[in-house]
Design brief:
InterPro entries: STK19-like (IPR018865). The chain has a three-stranded antiparallel sheet with strand order 1-3-2. Helix content is 45%, strand content 15%. Helix 5 packs antiparallel against helix 6 and helix 9 crosses helix 11. The radius of gyration is 19 Å and the shape is elongated. It is of the alpha+beta class. It has two domains: 144 residues, no CATH class; 70 residues, Arc Repressor Mutant, subunit A, CATH 1.10.10.
Amino acid sequence: MNRKRALIADTFCLSKRRRCASDCVTGDSQDIRSSLQYLMTLFSRKLFNDSLPPVVLKHQLYSLHDDKTSVDKQVNELRENGELLMFQLGFDSEAFALVFAEDYRAKVLQGEAGRGTLATVEKFLAKLIPSCSDLSFNKEKMLKEFLFTDSEITQLVKSGVLTVRDAGSWWLSIPNSGKFIKYFIKGRKAVLGMVKKSKYGEILKTELEARRTTAQVKFQMKYHVHDIIGAELVECIQTTSGTLLRYVDGNNN
């Protein structure tokens, strides 16, 4: 598995400025799919007792691809094809989680096994997976298009596939993702702190990736490095020694 991960990682090259993005972008959804698969190998499934599907933040793709517009377009194509689901995580209006639809279905059904809400959740997944690319749903859509009752909507919220957005609308959600969000935020702050505390607020990317994780950093370092680069919380500078990450003053993260 480690050799496979290394081979996938070696297919990505580094570019310039604030995102250490790939110079070798071809511009089709297959390319984005490969990037998602690579990033998902960095997701720590054992941390959640394999109860969560692999989760990638959309902006992590920006650390591998220069053209944000192209990334967004290809992500939307995968969503419209029913291959990919997107979720608003709540802690940041710009933070969107991406999960392969079949991984989501498998983990949701695994969690629902033996529960009284299983049939309603199965009905919801049958409506959602084939062609739905919505981030949220209003009551009219749930009642008139999806044909759910108020009682069934309550069951979907209870199961965790929906969370309340406001009165009469719900976000699509990943069941049991609260711990993921908690660990992700703590890890981001800790890794950014490592950059900030380095001499001149700069550190080589390879050096940061090689750092041992602390109690605050639950994910692999590379997972967080792709996060802080893609979210432009650090600046990338090309040097003869490799890519240098510089802390960006004014970060609130």
